[in-house]
Amino acid sequence: MRLEQDIRVINKLGVHTRAASKLVKLCSQFDCSIQISNGKRQADAKSIMSVMMLAACQGTELKMVVEGEDAAEAIRQITDLFESCFEERE
After folding, report:
1. Is 16 known to be catalytic?
2. Among the options 13, 16, 48, 50, which is catalytic?
3. What domains are defined for the chain?
4. Which residues of 26-64 are buried (b: 16+ CB within 10 A; e: fewer)?
5. For 39-54, how does the pLDDT look when each residue is reduced to its tens digit (9 = 90+)?
């Protein structure tokens, strides 16, 4: 199964080191392939360095492309993480 979804970075600090670490930890729990891009760059969501290279600040529109049997659950949980501002107080 291949799914795509757009997602906006809403937290004030963007996808900084701690947020990127939480994202990578979550994505690594899934068997599916998870790619995130900001239009210019593409990142493997299971690689901290790759995610950090996106330099996704607040307001950045990202596109997720998820392929694999657990793609739907991966997108749901990743979306929840972004919507919770990476579980950080702002």
Report:
1. yes
2. 16
3. 2-87 (3.30.1340.10)
4. bbeebebbbbbebeeeebebbebebbbebebeeebebeb
5. 889 999 999 999 999 9
